[in-house]
Structure formats: C-alpha cells, structure tokens
Specification:
The protein is mainly beta and 248 residues long. The protein has one domain (3-230): Carbonic Anhydrase II. 10% of the residues lie in helices and 33% in strands. The chain is built from 4 helices and 14 strands. The strands form 2 sheets. Strands 1, 3, 4, 5, 6, 7, 9, 10, 11, 12, 13 and 14 form a 12-stranded mixed beta sheet that branches. Strands 2-8 form a two-stranded parallel ribbon. The longest helix is centred in the C-terminal third of the chain and has 11 residues, at 220-230.
C-alpha cells in the first residue's frame, strides 16, 4: 500500500542549497571563511553575490499597494525524492506541477528549507522558511516563499522529516511515498512580490519572488531537528532593497 506525506496542514507552512550551485567548483557555506560575507570573493562565478543590487533575501517593510494577480497553484502528488546536500534538505519534484501568474506558467522543480527564515517582515524573523523553486520554459526562475512560525506541530513537516537523510550527500527516492506540496501552503495565499536573486552562490539575479504573507505553524522540536541536522543557521543575511519596489 502506498503511504503519503500529503497531509493537510489545517487552519494554523535556492534559493539556498539548491542544485544551481552544484555546478560551480568553489565550495561555500554558512560559517568561517566560506560564510556569506565571503561568497563574492570565493570565485569569479560568485562575484554578483558581492556586487549585485537586486540580491535576496530582503526585509519586507516599505510596501507599494498594487493589484497583484492571484497565484494559481497546480501542484500534484509525486513520489518522494529527498536529498541532504549539506546546505539544506531539498525535495526534487517530478514534472507536471506548476504555478500560473498573469497567464504565465512556471514549473515546480524543487523545494527546500532554511532556519531561521531568510526573508523577514518588518524586521521579524520566522522559525523556518521554505522556497518552492520554479522555472518557465525558457529558464526564467521564480520562487514562492512560505514562512513558518513557531506553534503547533506541522503534520506535513512531521511526515517529511521522517524520511530526512541524516548524512550529507545522501538522497532517498521512495516511490511508495507520495508528497504533495499543496499541503505545505497556508489557506490564504496573498503575497508580497519583488525581484531578487538566488540566495546562494552564484546569487544570480532576475529571480521573481512571491513571498506568501500568511505563515503556517511548525513546532519548536521540528525546527530544532532541522537546525541540528544542518549544524548551523542556513540563512543568508538580509540584503539591501535599494530601489526595488515591494508590492502587495
């Protein structure tokens, strides 16, 4: 019988550690001489981490009122493919799931986690943040961010953590386990919209960010379990907003 991690969250949930960085030779991390403040000097491939003007994450504070089109989520259940890449826990998503915004379709590639959150709202950090990474047919990237606040246990996270690889470089492909990331989303899906970058090397810009406003709960024990496995805060420091508008 097939088991499932696709459990409803209920009323009350790279872009760091993604595959985008894996093709680059210079090793990076979150502490010591490989910490975020040094990324731009580790490799010429990472130069924009230091020189970029549209970097992520940001503090969402000064907002511009706008008529944002709703995000149409078309996510489906897929077999669980979960990886510990040393920077995060990442779930690779099989083809066939997407979001549509303003009639434009982007395909879900993977989602992964940070603790504490990378983006902040008016200076407030959250217990965790998930990034759902998408690409359209010509390679334009977009990210849906989901914030977690400390509270009750999250059934979706509980199921996922039960299969979390404990060793770096280990992946698990479990065709008998189904995951549907729809069940990680808050019930209300209003969002902040801004342009940004990958939050890990190579820090490429031109990424469309949609940060969902409403956080979902995660228990302290669930957040601590992830943080303990990573061994470090795996969140890049807040970057200057500069001239970018943040829409809501």
């Amino acid at each position: 019988m097939k088991t499932t991690v696709a459990v409803a969250v209920g009323a009350g949930l790279l872009l760091a550690g993604t595959a985008w960085a894996s093709g680059h030779s210079a090793h990076w991390g979150y502490s010591g001489h490989e910490a975020p403040e040094f990324w731009g000097d580790l490799s010429s491939d990472y130069a924009i981490c230091k020189s970029g003007k549209n970097q992520s994450p940001i503090d969402v504070a000064s907002l511009v009122e706008a008529e944002l089109s709703p995000i149409v989520f078309q996510y489906h259940g897929v077999p669980l493919d979960i990886v510990n890449n040393g920077h995060t826990i990442k779930v690779n998503y099989a083809p066939g799931s997407s979001v549509i915004v303003n009639g434009h379709t982007s395909n879900l590639l993977q989602f992964h986690f940070h603790t504490p959150s990378e983006n902040t709202v008016k200076g407030q950090f959250f217990a965790m943040e998930a990034h759902l990474v998408h690409s359209d047919d010509v390679g334009n990237l977009s990210v849906v961010g989901v914030l977690f606040e400390e509270g009750s246990s999250n059934p979706f996270i509980e199921g996922l953590w039960g299969h979390m690889p404990e060793k770096t470089g280990v992946s698990k492909s479990l065709p008998e386990v189904t995951v549907n990331v729809t069940d990680m989303l808050p019930a209300k899906k209003s969002y902040y919209r801004f342009n940004g970058s990958l939050t890990t090397p190579p820090c490429s810009e031109g990424v469309s960010w949609m940060l969902l406003k409403n956080p979902v709960p995660v228990s302290k024990a669930q957040a601590v379990k992830f943080h303990t496995l990573m061994g470090v805060d795996n969140n890049r420091p807040i970057q200057p907003v500069n001239a970018r508008p943040v829409l809501q």
